[in-house]
Fold this protein.
Amino acid sequence: MRLPRVSPATCGCHQSDACVHACVARRAVWAKLGATMSDPNVLRSIEGDFSAPKDAAIAIVAARFNDFIVEKLIAGAVDGLGRHGIPKSAMTLVRTPGAFELGLIAQRLANSGQFAAVIALGAVIRGSTPHFDYVCNAAGSGCSSAMMDSGLPVIFGVLTTDTVEQAVERAGTKAGNKGFDAALAAVEMINLSRALSAAGL
């Protein structure tokens, strides 16, 4: 498989205008795809990974409601991003009143062109009225719409639990930290999106 012809400015190798070189990531992806596509018995596979994405700015949008839980999710997300090579200077935290408003702000951030991914965090705990269902539906559909409309990864890290105890368990105790998990998903999705772009998809 031939690599696409690119300009010196694009690949950075500063050769002639007829340059056929590409960046290391693009060359690796194309080489792998070329080998795969030439063998009818090998499944073509493209995946993201957890390597540090270069120059990736991340927006974290977090609800203030149930703040004693959400603060733990934020800390987990920041820790997860930091452990995967993203400095705090590349993170922007935006707070909303509650989970119901997450979708609107996630969409605005995703469409800003300033971020590689958006992480939405919140905690909705069931009470004695149907309010829980309305908030959960709005948060989920809002974040999904933000992702589909913008084409940017919007990671849904909102806890929807029946009890406070279940929320606590998922905010850094025995069931892990869903904020940390959301950070990992953001890193993987950034790298997957870049791999797909490198493959011309």
